[in-house]
């Protein structure tokens, strides 16, 4: 079997190294890949967001299975296009990938189906956000750009001035582009961070090993959010009791909610 992996980061390299261990895999290709990946897979200079280009490449190399890892092409509908062209894939279709691509959608979904989440409000005008923050006057606050921003679309201002500056950067200066057309303002929750990735076919949920993601750029939980400065795995706070509660109250209900919305999620979901 020939596998094509879409993407060019450490995540894709890790996937490729694991896929290589399978006796069912004869060869692996990657687009666009990177210098390190080139030691483990044949790399092709096709952008991970070039849907037509990836479909053409899959046809050209006669791929049997295509793994689409990055969020951007998933949200844009790459899996849909590959399936339409007859390819077996790993990854959600666009109507399901929206749960990763829109914080407004995911928050509204959780509220509708009684899935635990922080209290929030959604805004589409900077002045309305600022008025709300002034009125509420509770800091730290959590302000999130609605769309994808490479894991950097969240700011946690500790003062009103920081909050106003952040809102203007997101909604007026468009530092995250159209992803900042809407923002979510959440209550600030305290406690240990837990991240869990889970495989799902839209029916079963199989969590991976838990981790603690350190997203702030500086020591002491300071600085801007990043795509991740490092992780600790397994997470020492993710006990068996916590895992059971998460499965019953978050993981399974989320998959069921997506099914109820006609957006069955197949792939890897990040909780």
Helix content: 25-40%
Q: What count of structural domains?
A: 3
How many β-strand stretches? 14
Distance between the termini: 31 Å
Task: Give, in order, the helices and strands.
Answer: EHEEHEHHEHHEHEEHEEEEEHE
Shape: globular
Q: Would you kindly provide a written description of the structure presented here, covering whatever features stand out?
A:
This protein starts with a strand and ends with a strand. It is globular. The model has no long low-confidence stretch (mean pLDDT 96). Helix content is 35%, strand content 24%. The protein folds into 3 domains: 2-91, 3-Layer(aba) Sandwich (Rossmann fold); 119-186, 2-Layer Sandwich (Dna Ligase, domain 1), CATH 3.30.1490.20; 197-270, 2-Layer Sandwich (D-amino Acid Aminotransferase, Chain A, domain 1). The protein has a 5-stranded parallel beta sheet with strand order 3-2-1-4-5, with helices on both faces. A 4-stranded antiparallel beta sheet has the order 6-9-7-8, with helices on both faces. Strands 11-10-14 form a 3-stranded antiparallel beta sheet, with helices on one face. With 271 residues, the protein is an alpha/beta fold. Strand 1 (2-7), helix 1 and strand 2 form a beta-alpha-beta unit. The longest helix has 21 residues, at 240-260.
